[in-house]
Amino acid sequence: MRKKILLCDDDEGVVEVVKIVLAEKGYAVEVLYECGEIDKQVKKIKPDLIILDLWIPEIGGEQATRVLKADPATRNIPIIILSAHHDTEKLAKAVGADAFLKKPFDITVLENIVGKHLR
Amino acid sequence: MKNKTALSETDILEKMLDNTDAQLAYLDLRFNFIKVNAAYAKGSGYRKSDLIGKNHFDLFSNGENQKIFEKVRKTGRPVKFRARPFVYANRPQKVTYWDWTLKPVKDGNRQLCGFVLSLIDVTERRELEFRKDEFISIASHELKTPLTSIKAYNQILEKIIKEIGDRRAKLYIERTGRYIDELSSLITDLLDVSKIQSGKLQFNLSRFDFDELVENSAEEAQLTANRHAIVVSGKIRQKIVGDRHRLQQVMNNLLNNAVKYSPGKDKVIIRVGKTDRFVKVAIKDYGIGIPKIKQKKIFERFYRVDTTAQHFSGLGIGLYISAEIVRRHGGKIWVVSKQGYGSTFYFTLPFGLAKI
């Protein structure tokens, strides 16, 4: 079965190109432009992996990660945090993200991180 | 005929004092007001006549300031503060910021006889600076978002072109990639500056092989330097604690500068050594050098050595960021340079690091 990835980013341009990269690799991609009620959305979509922008509207990638990692139903889904601030890695890891990727990124690095966490 | 003026010299001085925005007061050795200007009286909320003869700390009780005043009296050395916060007792919700100085004054016998207190309200200037830094932070973030898409699309294109096998297209797309990375690092620098200003620059500490970091930096610099050989001499054979990424940024910045400011030369030398507590790195070029009077300023924000004869691009923030990173690691950074003969930038880092 194709692995499903949930992508949460408010920038249309970034969403578009990440979708292309992941689709090329054979993943199914679902998109959210804001992460209000993220736990409900995740339970509905049931992704195998989540890519979250740190500055996403509503509650922010940081808080969204906390919520998902605190819930037994979603805690095992790997989360990759994207951020334009490279020194937010500490914060991303502190709230429980499994990986951190700074913008702009190499698409091969994105592919590798996604591949690694879906294994 | 001598030009006669309607005002005496004292009157003129009085006029000058009363027509400046700086708040000025002269205090005697017990900190009693001897003279104040109009701005001082207005700022204090008292009339001039109500201030004269009164003790500064009877009117404006402030233990912290009193200690500072007493220290100036004891040492005879002036104090200077920039943008020091102050809260008026009757307006506790509003913080104001002041540049203030207290300078001791000596009489004809070189005996301390009083003090000049000077206060300048910089609240508005500080707000503007704050807004500017916030703007830089938002602007650089906004620039990074489209750049993320551009970079990703460029890499997708690169893959496609490799499959097709067009040699020229491959070359050009690789060049585009390099310029994208250059743009990205400029934006990152801008973001860093705004973070340093707001005290939010974060560090991720780890223990790592310093020699390896030096090698990597040299290799990376060599990729873009066509003419220069980047030579590494010395090893410390010891791990250090620090933010590897940030220290790499310092090395990259110093190496890029060394190459950039030595056009026509063919060598940049990195020397690495250690003392019992510090790693010491020297990066030497044989380029244009920096005039003595400008050497101190080069580590300041937005400062660029005026190069009217030759044009060098840059934002004037690389050394400012590097200095901040080194300083936060507990090290020092400085330059030794002679105009026309080249520059050597030095920095030190402690091996062990308690906290940054």
Major β-sheet strand ordering of chain B: 2-1-5-4-3
> What is the name of the CATH superfamily of chain A?
Response regulator
What's the CATH class label of the largest domain in chain B? Alpha Beta
Outline the low-pLDDT stretches of chain B.
Answer: none
Q: Residue share in helices of chain A?
A: 40-55%
Can you characterise this structure?
The complex is a heterodimer of chains A (119) and B (356). In chain A, strand 1, helix 1 and strand 2 form a beta-alpha-beta unit. The longest helix of chain A has 13 residues. Chain A has one domain: 3-Layer(aba) Sandwich (Rossmann fold), CATH 3.40.50. Chain A is an alpha/beta fold. With 356 residues, chain B is α+β, with helices and mostly antiparallel strands. Helices cover 43% and strands 24% of the residues of chain B. Chain B has ten helices and twelve strands. Chain B has a five-stranded antiparallel sheet, sandwiched between helices. Chain B is elongated, with a radius of gyration of 28 Å. The termini of chain B are far apart. The model of chain B has no long low-confidence stretch (mean pLDDT 90).
